[in-house]
Amino acid sequence: MPNPVESKSILLGVTGSIAAYKAADVASKLHQMGANVTAILTQSAMQFITPLTFQSVTGCKAYTDADLWGGEGHVTHIGLARSADFLVIAPASANTIAKLAHGISDNLLTVTALAAGCPILIAPAMDAGMYSHPATKENVDILCQRGAVVIGPESGHLASGLTGVGRMTEPDKIIAHVRYLLSRNGPLKEKRIVVTAGGTREPIDPVRVIANRSSGRQGYAIAQAAMDAGADVTLITAPTHLEMPVGCRVISVTTAREMLQQVLSYAEGADVLIMAAAVADFRPRNPAGQKIKKHSNLLVLDLEPTEDILAAVANMKAETGFPLRTIGFAAESENLIQNARGKLEAKRLDMIIANDISAPNAGFEVETNRVTLLFADGHHEELPLMTKLDVAERIIQQVIQWL
Ligand code: CTP
Fold first, then answer.
1. CA torsion, points 24, 29, 32, 37, in degrees to nearest 10?
2. Which is the catalytic residue, given 139, 185, 212, 355?
3. Residue ranges lining ligand 1, Cβ < 6 Å
4. What value does the mean pLDDT of the chain take?
5. What is the residue with the minimal CA distance to atom 20 of ligand 1?
6. What angle in degrees, to the nearest 10, is found between the helix axes of 217-228 and 388-402?
7. Measured between alpha carbons, how far is 332 from 355 in angstroms, rounded to an integer?
8. Which of 99, 150, 240, 322 is the most interior residue, by most CB within 10 Å?
9. Are residues 225 and 169 in the same domain?
10. 330 Cα–ligand 1 center, Å
11. Which residue from 195, 200, 335, 343 has its CB within 8 A of the most atoms of ligand 1, so it is best to mutate?
12. Would you say residue 4 lies in a domain?
């Protein structure tokens, strides 16, 4: 399954800001993801960075105002505009934002933007005072009303030495937005997919919890793969150290009980629920209100079972018909297939992804996984060792086939 950026023609407008050096990173990463990236630099941008930088990282010609009248003649901008699937302007200075808002087209970038019918993403970068000026605010509002997506600027250290809102959003986040916006017409367009991820935490006292080794990577990879296919994704996540994926609805929970409530609420009307979270099976019966002291001699924890979320979802599905399809995971250290098949049947799933947590390079806290897919009709499919991203794509391919 190609990522939504692959083979797309992306124009990258670069304007006069010190953040122009970060635009080279945006160009390089989009190129590495398979996009055809053409940079257009304004005169001011060239005070900070050269066209050669962009040509070197993208393998494509980078354009400047010298191309507006010379070389390819008077239609350069029309050619660039019409062949583009997407226009990113990063960094976008206050001056360029003002020109775009008012249709001024006095250089190659602004005239191309005026001629372009493709989606536009703008990442402003300027000093805090310039960004908060009513003129800039109004210009940004005008662009948003016309359908441009404006991301940032962020708060932090500015070139002036001051701290404030004006820093360009970091390249990885800009790219995540481009990826999301280019994915919207995928095969799962308008399909509602709920994904759970991470390991729940059950409090013992205000300091201590019962947790597990789940990193959340597999669930986050599934959420990303579902978004790449165009789905409307809700990610219900227990605490993790991972970046929140751009474009999905993120619901943060801590305990199994909180996850149960959110899953039942979002799975209502959903097309697919994918339970990748490692949900605690037991919780302390009476969590202490104050920190338990060392000298309290508490050596045994009194536990009670948590709710089985997939069992509750199976009951909901029997009553309402939703979610249309349910996928679970089975983390096993022995009798993989037999145990997983038992869970698939007990929890009335359409598919279960069985993973042998004792195998090397698979299971918790690693980037790779070795899994077997078991289906409700009785067949199963063993997959080789692969990245969690590839496992996620395989699961989403199955979802596409179902829906
Ligand atoms: N699961 C759940 N609610 C729980 C525990 C697990 O919905 N309270 C889900 C998990 O998200 C996973 C599937 O059930 O998709 C199987 O989880 P797993 O921990 O492998 O199995 P358990 O049902 O907890 O059984 P056991 O611990 O005995 O292996």
1. -50
2. 212
3. 256, 275, 277, 279, 281, 306, 308-310, 328-331, 343
4. 95
5. 330
6. 50
7. 6
8. 99
9. no
10. 7
11. 343
12. no
Q: Is residue 253 part of a domain?
A: yes
Spatial distance between the Cα atoms of 30 and 28, rounded to a whole number of angstroms? 6
Read off the pLDDT of each residue in 137-142 and give the average, rounded to a whole number.
98
Ligand 1: centre distance to CA 279 (Å):
6
Q: How much distance in Å is there from the Cα of 251 to the middle of ligand 1?
A: 20
- Domain boundary residue among 134, 159, 182? 182
Active site residue 95: no
Q: Are residues 168 and 110 in the same domain?
A: yes
Q: Whose CA is nearest to atom 24 of ligand 1?
A: 281
Among 182, 217, 232, the domain-final residue is: 182
Same domain, residue pair 288 and 363: yes
Which atom of ligand 1 is the closest one to the Cα of 278? 11
Q: How many domains does the chain have?
A: 2
Instruction: Please report, for residues 11, 259, 327, 340, the alpha-carbon distance to residue 374 in angstroms, rounded to integers and kept in the order given.
Output: 44, 25, 10, 8
Tokens of 243: 């970046």
Cβ atoms 263, 224 nearer than 8 A: no
Q: What is the mean pLDDT of residues 384-398?
A: 95
User: What tokens appear for 61 in the block?
Assistant: 């010609």
Q: What percent of the chain has pLDDT over 90?
A: 87
* Same-domain status, 175 and 215: no
